[in-house]
Design goal:
7% strand, single chain, alpha/beta, 5-stranded mixed beta sheet, 55% helix, Rossmann fold, 3 domains, Recombinase_CS, SSR_resolvase, 12 helices, 5 strands
Length: 307
């Protein structure tokens, strides 16, 4: 159960307000949430695309890991953060352990006070119950419709009518394009700097370091859309040149460092030896200096942020 540090007061902390906006699918957009979060004073907003029932949220995990003491994580509604009470309380405990705070704009939540922590737990339980009731109502509605001989969904789509399918496709494309354009100024400059010298795998790792949960396939699809719409140069889609072996090692070392920035050079070297990776000179024993050289190259190439 989340605990409140004994030295907390009810006064609003003076740290950063960091917004977290999540939607469930690629076809949805975060603009509405972003507007509310910016109105609340959030200068930084982290976006996430993933199901509310899943705890696999790289952007949220990175945000919680890097948030500073006195900062406040802000969401529009509790269900944007979590739909499970246990998950919700786990996130709050992590924030509390770092001296950070949590606020939901649509709920009476303020974790700077014991009362706010109590309200959080109560409302989390209510949100979970409401989700269960909604699911039950949906199942009951589908069952009742089937009993009357009706099938759920849009009849035109179900019957594969060309005009309805065309409308659905156009709506999906418009929604996808709107979402891509809403965030392009944050990730497209990075792609312009790294492509085509770096692979889509490499660039997706770079973007994940900055809080974007892109797979290489989704990233390439988004850039292809931008190119087709005349918003990006087609050279971005050119095939990457063959990579020398040391480039693969550079990417591997950068990936190990990104997954756990607290690892020492010696610890990364030990991991490489356990993976039976050979050094750039072909040896089997890794020195910390070799790891540092590869990390420095990764920073110069843009795969890692310079300290």
């Amino acid at each position: 159960m989340a605990k409140t540090p004994p030295n907390r007061s009810s006064r609003r902390p003076q740290g950063r307000l960091i917004g977290y906006a999540r939607v469930s699918t690629d076809e949805q957009a975060t603009e509405a949430q972003e507007m509310e979060l910016r109105s609340a004073g959030c200068d930084t907003i982290i976006q996430e695309y993933g199901s509310g029932a899943s705890r696999t949220r790289p952007a949220l995990a990175r945000l919680v890991r890097e948030i500073g003491a006195g900062d406040t994580l802000v969401v529009v509604r509790l269900d944007r953060l979590a739909r499970s009470v246990s998950h919700l309380l786990n996130v709050i405990e992590e924030l509390t352990s770092k001296g950070a705070y949590f606020r939901s704009l649509s709920d009476p939540i303020d974790t700077t006070t014991p009362q706010g922590m109590f309200s959080l737990q109560v409302l989390g339980a209510v949100a979970q119950l409401e989700r269960a009731l909604n699911s039950e109502r949906t199942r009951a509605g589908v069952k009742a419709a089937k009993a009357k001989g009706r099938l759920p969904g849009n009849p035109g789509v179900r019957e594969r009518r060309p005009e309805m399918l065309a409308k659905m496709t156009a709506a999906q494309k418009a929604a996808y394009g709107a979402r891509i354009q809403s965030t392009a100024n944050q990730w497209l400059p990075i792609i312009r700097r790294l492509r085509p010298d770096h692979t889509w795998d490499d660039i997706s790792r770079v973007l994940k370091q900055r809080g974007f949960d892109w797979t290489p396939e989704r990233l390439r699809r988004a850039v292809k859309w931008m190119v087709n719409e005349g918003m990006a140069d087609k050279s971005l889609l050119r095939k990457s040149p063959p990579r020398p072996p040391e480039d693969r090692l550079m990417t591997l070392v950068a990936g190990i460092h990104s997954s756990n920035p607290e690892l020492t050079l010696r610890e990364i070297a030990n991991q490489l030896e356990r993976l039976h990776e050979r050094t750039p000179q072909g040896g089997t024993r890794w020195a910390p200096s070799s790891v540092k050289n590869l990390l420095d190259r990764a920073k110069r190439s843009g795969l890692l942020e310079a300290a």
